[in-house]
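Service request form, structural biology core

Requester: graduate student, group of Dr. S.
Request type: structure prediction, single chain
Budget code: on file
Notes: please return the result as structure tokens.

Sequence provided:
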Amino acid sequence: MENAASDKVFAGSIPELYDEYLVPLIFEPYAADLAHRLAAMNIARVLELAAGTGVATRAIAAALPSSVTIVATDLNQPMLDHAMRLGTRRPVDWQQADALDLPFADKTFDAVVCQFGAMFFPDKRKAFAEARRVLAPGGTLIFSVWDRIEDNEFADAVTSALAEVFPDDPPRFLARTPHGYFDVEDIRRDLADGGFDHTPHITTIAARSRAARSDIPATAYCHGTPLRNEIEARSPGHLAQATAVATAGITKRFGEGPVDGKIQAHVVTVRA
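Core staff response, request fulfilled:
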């Protein structure tokens, strides 16, 4: 199931579970970092790509002056609908848009940002070229991508546990897509091919992912991501069983009670 079409399907209950479980588990510290970086810049218009359920959008809206226009986009309407229901502290222009074909004029934005979305772009060079096109001269692209799965311990534990359940066809969504775009040389090359002439600045940031119980990260990944689609395709009606196995895998690695695992990501900044 390499390059599975289901990797981009965030539908049904996934948006709500994604926001309830994954956002506090792994996304919030990087959203705060992204907002801090933007707040230090002199900008008037910001475009967010792959906004998802809006965790970075909310942090950006809270950090930037009300005079800064924020346009938040996502290809997946159910995720965007959930983000709009949650709302922000001040007005944000929400719009469905494909990062590979942005519906904006050239040189419109001072900054383009994307938190953990670039891994899902089927043609990353084209997406970077579109970001370059809509950036004003001297504008900045900032995006984050997860490092390899071995440096993101809960995701690695879940993937390893499920491989024991489905040894002939292990679900590889987490390794293939969220943690599949970690090579910094690939990132540099794709940015250059997308038209960015300046050398990107890439910072690797480690953080901690904590939960009160081991079933919380297991549920986050098995129910709140497209990994759920892979599990249900292999064994309809056995999502709860697979989640229990993932829970046991996390417990085995991190112990009973509160669990604490490493997460790690690259934050990339490059000027147009």
